[in-house]
Amino acid sequence: xxxxxxxxxxxFLLSRNRHENSKAFYDxxxxxxxxxxxxxxxxxxxxxxxxxxxxxxxMQLLPAKMMSRVRRDTxxxxxxxxxxxxxxxxxMRPKDDYPFLWPCxxxxxxxxxxxxxxxVCPYDQTPKFMQFLRERMDEGFLKAAxxxxxxxxxxxxESYKKDRAPDAPKKLKPYLNAKTFMxxxxxxxxxxxxxxxxxxxxxxxxxxxHAMYAWLQKAAEEYLAALEH
Length: 229
Known about the structure:
By secondary structure, the chain is an alpha+beta fold. Helix content is 45%, strand content 16%. It has a 5-stranded antiparallel beta sheet. Helix 3 packs across helix 6. The longest helix is centred in the N-terminal third of the chain and has 33 residues. It is globular.
């Protein structure tokens, strides 16, 4: 089914649902949220599935297993709102079959911030795995990073306070000093979500991240192989 769009009214409904913070309100609007938000998200996944399947045949492409839920798990958080107003999709290998070290793509809409984002990153950024990645950052990594950056996708990271690579080439320093990182594109034009123009817009951004996904995937394979020996 072609992408039917996510309207400003649909995003407002998500925000209102969070504000009301009421099971009665959610139950009364549950079907409306499903039809206006989650069905278009599933259509978006379907429109992009062929691209991701070609990049990684093992990628999970069943919408029900990729999309976020409206109801929050508040058991382990101080923020007790029962419902979220942001929604997201994760394009990655099945969590049950593959380690969390595998890279992932995402797409997220944040109505309260008036923006959506997409990008690529290692899914599970444990200290040991991140150190393994930093030790393998080479010209191939730089090439993949530059492809993404030229497409308007920014390198976002949490950096160590102390320079951990004082003798490294200047072009590698931001990456070698990153504790965690992602390549992230942010757009503040939510009207793009209303038509199928969003499909090509995202396709272009994801394509620019393909080389980084491939680099991260190869690094994850090498890390897992090293753990086995």
